[in-house]
Amino acid sequence: MDIRFKVKRFDELTTLELYKILRLRADVFIVEQECIYQDIDDKDQKGLHVIGFKEQEVVAYARLFDAGDYFEKASIGRVVVSKNERQFGYGHDLIKACINAIEEHYNTEKIKISAQTYLEKFYETHNFEKIGEEYLEDGIPHIVMVIQ
């Protein structure tokens, strides 16, 4: 079964979709990565949500922001794939869907992300380049990466 993506504004999300998104984010970022942080940060309402469905389950997700909403460039954040689904390469499908959505909805190809350092090579395969030095965000090493 393949993954299919939907791009929605916050006010277009169903209650069940929002619940499944928040559960996936908590499962990975808080439980799996053992990082206690405030995931619900009042930014979801401003972003676009890229949701990867496999049948009726949310197995991949990211949120997007236009230039100026979060960084000076458009951005991708909260990139997550369910642990049981990572073996299928859905992370790559998700990033491609995000880049396409940014081009379509925000009319730009310039993107800035705050990536977990261990994913540097993954993002490089999607034409992101590292800029600056590693830093800690919520106790996890991150780097800034951009598509100019």
Walk me through what this model shows:
The structure is a single chain. It is built from three helices and seven strands, in the order E-H-E-E-E-H-E-H-E-E. With 148 residues, the chain is of the alpha+beta class. It has a seven-stranded mixed beta sheet, with helices on both faces. Strand 6 and strand 7 form a beta hairpin. The protein starts with a strand and ends with a strand.
**Largest sheet: number of strands, sense, barrel closure:** 7 strands, mixed
Question: What is the name of the CATH class?
Answer: Alpha Beta
> Structural class from helices and strands?
alpha+beta
- In CATH, the architecture is 3-Layer(aba) Sandwich
Rg calc: 14 Å
Strand content: 35-45%
Features:
148 residues; alpha+beta; Aminopeptidase; seven-stranded mixed sheet; globular
Provide a brief overview of the structure.
By secondary structure, the chain is of the alpha+beta class.
Draw up the topology in text.
Blueprint: E1 4-9, H1 15-32, E2 48-54, E3 57-65, E4 74-81, H2 90-106, E5 111-116, H3 120-124, E6 129-137, E7 140-147
Parallel strand pairs: 4-5
Antiparallel strand pairs: 1-2, 2-3, 3-4, 5-7, 6-7
